[in-house]
Design a protein that fits this description.
It is built from 14 helices and seven strands. It is α+β, with helices and mostly antiparallel strands and 330 residues long. The chain folds into three domains: 120 residues, Roll (Membrane-bound Lytic Murein Transglycosylase D, Chain A), CATH 3.10.350; 59 residues, Roll (Membrane-bound Lytic Murein Transglycosylase D, Chain A), CATH 3.10.350; 127 residues, Lysozyme (Orthogonal Bundle). The protein has a three-stranded mixed β-sheet. A two-stranded antiparallel sheet has the order 3-4. Strands 6-7 form a two-stranded antiparallel sheet. Helix 9 crosses helix 14 and helix 11 crosses helix 12. The longest helix has 18 residues. It is globular and about 55 Å long. The two termini are 33 Å apart. The relative contact order is 0.11.
């Protein structure tokens, strides 16, 4: 067991992007060209900036350019909190969650987290703003006054931009500390293009319950999956490309579309939730009502589960979801 833990910690000690400099998109730019010029992958650049369509980047858009740091594995112990873990490694809670998108409401004892010493409180350099004399770019800029109960991720979701973009342009050092009454600058975005979905966890939760009742399963189960996967955030895209509240992979979305007899848009809140709830309901029936196996297959895939059994991280994922199911009343 000790050997396995050491191996896992070594495997987790891999380079990971951390936010650093910024770049202002100019006419003729493509995401691929920007990524190559800064030595990062297109997927990483898209994920950091909340870009859903890598083929669409808007003139005047502010991009955060990640740099490479070292990341390590940490196994959660009884009594640990995200604030405590963050303080130990010099990270913010937001940074921990961004590195661990499958993390539930609370860290569970035995769960492995990715952490990096000092990378969660980085400050950012100024935006590269070479003059563009021949093209006038129409952008929208605004300010927002922080209200009681606000947090940075909620403000960013409200305006359809990434938390890192808000942090960068306002020179915020601690993402978890935003003072009531502070006037924040919202990064300018060129008009037109893809609009992200406003973060609305209550609508997401209501839709999950609605489709769970339609497909005949306990709503607490997909509620647990939705919270574990994304925190009910339709703007979430995983490193593997899974989309939305229910983190449905695009290829799974195609299968579900064929089964439902209509094309689903996984970037649409209702379609994404319908796809995820439909899929977990089918898995529950496939495994004869065994929710533990259904949740494992939702995470790992039916074929992989049949050929390899539970992976180590699948055990933890299933435990998290079933614990959340109990909290949601299941």
């Amino acid at each position: 067991m000790l050997f396995r833990s050491i191996c896992l910690a070594v495997l987790l000690a891999l380079p990971l992007p951390a936010q650093a400099a910024g770049y202002l998109v100019r006419p003729g730019d493509t995401l691929g060209a920007i990524a190559r010029s800064h030595g990062v992958s297109i997927r990483t650049l898209a994920r950091v900036n909340g870009i859903f369509n890598p083929n669409l980047v808007r003139i005047g858009q502010y991009l955060v350019i990640p740099t490479r740091v070292r990341v390590y594995g940490y196994r959660v112990r009884w009594g640990d909190t995200l604030i405590g873990i963050g303080a130990r490694y010099g990270m913010t809670v937001t940074a921990i969650r961004s590195m661990n998108p499958r993390l539930g409401v609370y860290p569970l004892a035995g769960e492995w987290l990715r952490v990096c010493s000092g990378c969660g409180g980085a400050t950012y350099t100024s935006v590269r703003t070479s003059p563009i004399p021949t093209v006038a770019v129409e952008t929208t800029t605004s300010t927002y006054v922080v209200q009681p109960g606000d947090n940075l991720s909620g403000i960013a979701a409200r305006f359809g931009i990434s938390t890192t973009a808000v942090t960068s342009v306002n020179n915020l050092v601690n993402e978890d500390l935003v003072v009531i009454g502070t006037r924040l600058r919202i990064p300018g975005m060129a008009t037109g293009g893809y609009d992200s979905t406003v973060y609305d966890p209550w609508s997401a939760r209501a839709l999950i319950v609605q489709f769970a009742q339609l497909y005949g399963i306990d709503p607490a189960l997909p509620l647990g999956i939705g919270w574990q996967e994304s925190g009910f955030n339709e703007n979430m895209i995983s490193a593997t490309g899974a989309i939305g509240v229910m983190q449905v992979e695009p290829y799974t979305g195609v299968t579900i579309s064929n089964l439902l007899g209509r094309s689903l848009d996984l970037h649409n809140l209702r379609d994404d939730i319908q796809a995820g709830v439909f899929w977990i309901a089918n898995l529950v029936r496939y495994y004869g009502g065994n929710e533990r196996l259904a949740v494992a297959a939702y995470y790992q895939g039916t074929r992989s589960l049949a050929h390899h059994g539970f992976y180590q991280d699948t055990y933890q994922y299933v435990a998290n979801v079933l614990a959340l199911k109990a909290r949601f009343g299941g």
